[in-house]
């Protein structure tokens, strides 16, 4: 009796850890290395073929830097006025950029020559992107129009005039379907295009603020838009339904990028922050802070580097200090869990001492029902917790007592030959809390004990008691039906996911050798283009 221990009350809701696996992963980014340009960094893009090279668009120059040496590898200075939005083609062989004159220029990344010169826009072209088949190029301009160009013959394929009522500063191409793309304008509207049909604009959405940046997720079914202080997620499969809105920035969001093989979304804003979101939950998992307003952002393959361009021409390059991969997030999570389980052992010292002070173990206070449990008086223990304070505000105390009674096989003794009002109160508590996942197992066992005790004596009680027992029976049946439906749903989802994985494996098994494209020669317009120096 002298060694009686207090009943353990389980903590069902614990405070989240401050240090998360994403924090550990992204803290591997080293101290930033800085470059200084003359004006605002309009756009940053990494080469798909050579991950160590990235292109910066700044003023009248488009420069390709090496990530390791931080030196300019190639300087594409064939611009009369300000250049905008230089981006690589999917194979890294070509690079397209718009300019303030309304031209779109296509460069060979190996020879730095202008291969094509697309003329047609009457205002600056801020963004240019290649289609998924790499055969066409889309341009988004301030003349409120979107043009689709054929790369091979240097001709416009389609012009979508007055697609918006204000400047068009954002666009994104579907990663799989070459006939689909979206555009965003300063009128706050988002247009969706399908080049296979006569009326190419298939739908219009309202972002609510001038759209600054857009991108598709790798599967192509979801696209994300940024404008104002909000980042919005749209589902194309369900009729372009708005999935969620993220408002983590307190100033304008200027750029979006994907990281960790499409599992993380990065957004930069004028508030000097880059927010990192988990694409599965769209919750913020980490934040990077910079010395000035962020206007452009680039992420290298496998998260090997994060390059940020700022409004004052400063370029921040953060590289991973270790050979990290997106899959390392799983290893970090497992390592963190093992560290939490590992107990910290006291240091083993052999230094002679006069006296060893033993640690005084703090004695935990007894719960309100512990004195009754100590005397094996289970009925009084149950009565001590069936009060409004514990029923409404601290149900964990009642659940802890029920768990202890079930462990001692004393639940039947505690509820046998009890006053009706006490049993009705207990049954009402079971009906109210049995649906909570954290309490479900012990309360279901307690409800089963109640039904067993009163199975043969129901006719000896009043109508109120019979009604309480009927409520308890209906509640248990409802939980059983819900569990059965969830198990059926789980089985259906497992079948669908398994079939999808099998299809992906069979699709990836097919291998073929892509023919090497012929080298593209400069067109006459590109050869005759001359940059005048004032």
Structure description:
With 534 residues, the protein is α+β, with helices and mostly antiparallel strands. It contains eleven helices and 28 strands. It has helices spanning 21-26, 328-341, 370-374, 378-385, 388-393, 395-407, 411-415, 420-433, 440-453, 463-509, 524-528; strands spanning 33-36, 41-46, 53-58, 61-66, 72-76, 83-88, 94-99, 104-108, 114-118, 125-130, 136-141, 146-150, 155-160, 168-173, 180-185, 189-194, 201-206, 211-216, 222-227, 230-235, 241-246, 253-259, 264-269, 273-278, 283-289, 294-299, 305-310, 314-319. The strands form seven sheets. The chain has a four-stranded antiparallel sheet with strand order 1-28-27-26, with no helix packed on it. Strand 20 and strand 21 (241-246) form a beta hairpin. Helix 4 runs antiparallel to helix 6 (395-407) and helix 6 crosses helix 9. The longest helix has 47 residues, at 463-509. The radius of gyration is 33 Å and the shape is elongated.
């Amino acid at each position: 009796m002298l060694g009686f221990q207090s009943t353990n009350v389980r903590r069902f809701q614990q405070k989240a850890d401050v240090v998360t696996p994403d924090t550990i992963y992204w803290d591997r980014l080293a101290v930033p290395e800085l470059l200084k340009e003359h004006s605002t960094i309009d756009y940053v893009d990494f080469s798909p073929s050579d991950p160590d090279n990235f292109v910066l668009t700044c003023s009248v120059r488009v420069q390709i830097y090496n990530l390791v040496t931080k030196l300019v590898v190639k300087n594409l200075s064939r611009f009369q006025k300000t250049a905008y939005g230089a981006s690589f083609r999917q194979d890294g062989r070509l690079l397209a950029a718009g300019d303030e004159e309304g031209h779109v220029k296509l460069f060979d990344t190996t020879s730095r020559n202008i291969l094509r010169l697309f003329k047609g826009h009457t205002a600056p072209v801020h963004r240019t992107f290649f289609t998924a088949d790499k055969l066409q190029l889309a341009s988004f301009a301030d003349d409120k129009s979107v043009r689709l160009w054929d790369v091979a013959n240097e001709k416009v394929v389609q012009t979508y005039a007055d697609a918006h009522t204000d400047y068009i500063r954002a666009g994104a191409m579907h990663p799989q379907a070459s006939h689909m793309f979206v555009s965003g304008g300063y009128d706050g509207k988002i247009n969706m295009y399908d080049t296979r049909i006569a009326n190419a604009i298939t739908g219009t959405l309202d972002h609510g603020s001038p759209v600054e940046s857009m991108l598709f997720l790798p599967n192509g079914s979801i696209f994300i838009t940024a404008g104002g202080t909000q980042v919005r997620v749209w589902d194309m499969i369900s009729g372009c339904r708005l999935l969620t809105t993220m408002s983590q920035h307190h100033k304008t969001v200027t750029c979006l990028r994907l990281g960790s093989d499409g599992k993380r979304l990065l957004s930069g804003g004028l508030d000097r922050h880059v927010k990192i979101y988990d694409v599965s939950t769209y919750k913020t998992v980490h934040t990077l802070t910079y010395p000035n307003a962020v206007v452009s952002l680039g992420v290298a393959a496998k998260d090997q580097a994060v390059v940020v361009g700022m409004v004052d021409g400063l370029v921040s390059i953060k590289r991973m200090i270790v050979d990290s991969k997106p899959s390392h997030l799983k290893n970090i999570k497992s390592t963190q869990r093992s560290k939490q389980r590992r107990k910290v052992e006291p240091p083993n010292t052999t230094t002679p001492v006069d006296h060893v002070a033993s640690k005084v173990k703090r004695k935990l206070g007894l719960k309100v029902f512990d004195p009754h449990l100590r005397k094996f008086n289970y009925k009084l223990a149950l009565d001590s917790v069936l009060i409004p304070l514990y029923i409404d505000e601290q149900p964990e105390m009642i659940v802890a007592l029920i768990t202890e009674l079930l462990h001692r096989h004393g639940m039947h003794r505690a509820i046998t030959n009890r006053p009706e009002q006490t049993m009705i109160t207990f049954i009402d508590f079971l009906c109210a809390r049995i649906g909570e996942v954290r309490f479900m197992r012990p309360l279901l066992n307690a409800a089963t004990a109640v039904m067993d005790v009163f199975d043969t004596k129901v006719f000896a009680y009043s109508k109120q008691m019979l009604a309480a027992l009927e409520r308890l029976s209906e509640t248990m049946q409802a939980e059983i039906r819900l569990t059965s439906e969830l198990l059926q749903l789980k089985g259906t989802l497992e079948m669908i996911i398994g079939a999808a994985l099998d299809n992906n494996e069979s699709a990836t098994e097919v291998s073929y050798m892509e023919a090497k494209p012929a080298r593209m020669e400069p067109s006459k317009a590109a050869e005759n283009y001359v940059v005048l120096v004032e």
